[in-house]
Design goal:
This protein is an alpha+beta fold. The protein has a single domain, classed as NADH Oxidase (3-Layer(aba) Sandwich). The chain contains 7 helices and 4 strands. It starts with a helix and ends in a 7-residue tail after the last helix. About 30% of the residues are buried. It binds flavin mononucleotide. Flavin mononucleotide (FMN) binds next to loops.
């Protein structure tokens, strides 16, 4: 599938079947993250795939009780260390991890799997459940699994409202 087709068909999935994710598909999703670009190619990140049911139940609590976390057979957690503010004023860690997470969202779609980027989580609790060192920042969490819903696509702003050429308009 062409990349734009994957982008067009991807949707956040919040209901999952308990069907396990095949090891090869999970590896492909994680490989997409590993190959993502990062500032100065430092790759100071970890991608944690959680399949243990007890840990996923605890992660559900760390994500404000969002049921999709305990329901999906895998929870993906993206974290990184050595954070620094780049000359553009942005956090390297946040951007690096966000790119990696985006690559995983698209690879999951290409594998016929669903994900849902979660920003609603308590980082300290996630770190405790997964033994993530103090100097790591947890940037994103997502369930991964086979969709048990087919939600309507969420609307996007019109191209003319968000795209401009040559100057801000
Ligand atoms: C940074 C970020 C944080 C998000 N946090 C949550 C969340 O905590 N819980 C949730 O159900 N969805 C969360 N979402 C999913 C968004 O609600 C969703 O991407 C948006 O409504 C567009 O829908 P779509 O992904 O189906 O296109 C988050 C998405 C992003 C990018």
């Amino acid at each position: 599938m062409a990349v734009l087709d994957v982008i067009k068909t991807r949707k956040s999935i919040r209901k999952y079947k308990d069907t396990p994710v095949e090891a090869e598909k999970l590896a492909n999703v994680l490989e997409a993250a590993r190959l993502a670009p990062s500032a100065r190619n430092l790759q100071d990140w970890k991608f944690i795939a959680v399949t243990d049911a007890d840990k996923r139940a605890r992660l559900q609590q760390a994500c404000g009780g969002q049921r999709q976390v305990g329901q999906a057979p895998v929870t993906l957690v993206v974290c990184a260390n050595n954070d620094g503010v780049m000359s553009c004023g942005q956090s390297k860690t946040t951007i690096d991890c966000s790119i990696a997470m985006s690559f995983m969202l698209l690879q999951a779609e290409a594998e016929g799997l669903g994900m849902c980027w979660l920003g609603h989580f308590y980082a300290d609790q996630v770190k405790q459940v997964l033994n993530i060192p103090d100097d790591y920042i947890v940037v994103a969490v997502s369930p991964l699994g086979y969709a048990d819903e087919d939600p309507a696509p969420k609307p996007r702003k019109a191209a003319e409202d968000v795209i401009c050429y040559n100057e801000f308009k």
